[in-house]
Write a structure and sequence with these properties.
single chain, alpha+beta, D-Maltodextrin-Binding Protein, domain 2, 2 domains, 3-stranded antiparallel beta sheet, 7 helices, about 35% helix, globular
């Protein structure tokens, strides 16, 4: 899973596992760090959660979450109000998470194709530092709403809907067909579906 997946899923999943299956441990890997197709076929990676259009033949999937995009910034920021205009959005200083080939990359590509020009001041390779950065700066980040919900309270942030039309991104749970009936794989899939699917 991605860092957003870890931030959104792992705290609650860890708590559930502690109660329901204290002997079970979870280890996550990044899609960019492994050959996900081969690792899942070999059974070394049980499940993948994300926007993974390359996992088709030989894989099963189920929709879990749909991400809408919001603008995230520190409380008290000039944009901290009920809604913002596209002009305000474009004039703001932005931090951008560069994640080409991901669902989030699709949102960036949509803005570029639509002629939306952001005043980009900082680019980072992942979401982990975004809350820390926004808390200390005047920067704005366009992020999935679930991420914003997890970061708002601990980092003293606010968010509003993005003022431009961006595609919703489907986050699916994937598993290899070889393990469709595997009891452990099935159990974990069902736990994830029951807890996080919309």
């Amino acid at each position: 899973m991605t860092d957003i997946g870890e931030i959104y899923v792992l705290p609650q999943l860890s708590e559930l596992l502690d109660r329901a299956a204290p002997g079970v441990s979870i280890s996550t890997v990044r899609n960019a760090g492994v050959n996900l197709r081969d690792e899942m076929e070999a059974g070394r990676v049980d499940l993948a959660l994300g926007w993974l259009p390359d996992l088709k033949a030989g894989f099963m999937q189920r929709r879990m979450i749909r991400h809408k995009y919001v603008c995230l910034f520190r409380k008290g920021h000039p944009l901290d109000k009920a809604s913002i205009t596209q002009d305000e959005f474009c004039a703001a200083k932005h931090v951008v998470v560069v994640s080409a080939g991901s669902g989030h990359g699709v949102a960036d590509e949509t803005m570029e194709r639509s002629g939306v020009e952001r005043n980009i001041k900082l680019e980072v390779p992942h979401f982990v530092a975004v809350g820390h950065i926004l808390r200390e700066t005047e920067l704005v980040a366009t992020v999935p709403e679930r991420f914003a919900e997890r970061c708002a309270e601990p980092f003293g942030l606010s968010f509003v809907p993005a003022p431009i039309p961006l595609p919703e991104i489907a986050i699916n749970l994937f598993w290899h067909t070889k393990y469709h009936r595997d009891p452990g794989n099935l159990w974990l899939r069902e736990l994830l579906f029951e807890t996080f699917s919309e």
